[in-house]
Write a structure and sequence with these properties.
This protein has 182 residues and is of the alpha/beta class. The chain has a single domain, classed as Rossmann fold. 34% of the residues lie in helices and 24% in strands. The protein contains 7 helices and 7 strands; from the N terminus they run ααβαβαβαβαβαββ. β2, α4 and β3 form a beta-alpha-beta unit. α6 packs across α7.
Length: 182
């Protein structure tokens, strides 16, 4: 994906936290808990230009679903170029994710992948997004995130009661990868 699109977005939009697309190493690390052999429902927060989205679509079954959220218009235009009926794009904030997703997905989502910069959010917004995420996930569903620091560990522990972290150094910048299970 174009680094130029990320650079433009970074300078125009205070909510874009990266100047480069996520590396393939980080994508694989974040997605490693996903069993792509099963039909799954995935929600991606901050889908950017679709680096994770394309990887997920290449690996998921024909009956799986992918819901993508991106508010930056430059990145959303790139995301809209994904021509796959399994992918549904929203140019809306994940602050309203519970209201935007189809009713039948509530409590049935297998994985939520998040690249939104939680460190940019106030505590109420962060808490609301994580609470909504917990309600969206099925029992055993997982919240998978990547952030530039370890700041999300305690909020995830408070919401889900558990969290695993690891570093992915083969990314610019290096990322903390989070996994929390409902």
């Amino acid at each position: 994906m174009s680094t130029l699109a990320y650079l433009k977005s970074f300078f125009k939009d205070k909510d874009v936290a990266s100047v480069t697309p996520t590396s393939r190493f980080c994508v694989r690390s974040v997605c490693s808990p996903i069993d792509f052999t099963k039909d799954i429902t995935v929600v991606e927060y901050g889908a950017g230009a679709g680096v994770f989205s394309r990887y997920i679509l290449q690996n998921m079954t024909a009956d799986s679903k992918l819901f993508l959220f991106e508010t930056n218009e430059i990145l959303f235009e790139k995301l809209e170029q994904i021509n796959d009926p399994r992918a549904i794009c929203y140019d809306e904030s994940v602050e309203f994710v519970s209201k935007l997703l189809p009713d039948e997905t509530i409590g049935e989502v297998d994985f939520i992948i998040s690249g939104i910069p939680f460190s940019f959010l106030d505590e109420d917004t962060k808490s609301s997004i994580l609470s909504q995420s917990s309600r969206l996930l099925r029992d055993g569903g997982k919240f998978l995130a990547y952030q530039t620091s370890g700041h999300l560990k305690e909020p995830l522990r408070q919401t889900f009661g558990n969290v695993k972290t690891e570093w992915e150094w083969r990314n610019i910048p290096p990322m903390t990868v989070y996994e929390a299970e409902k």
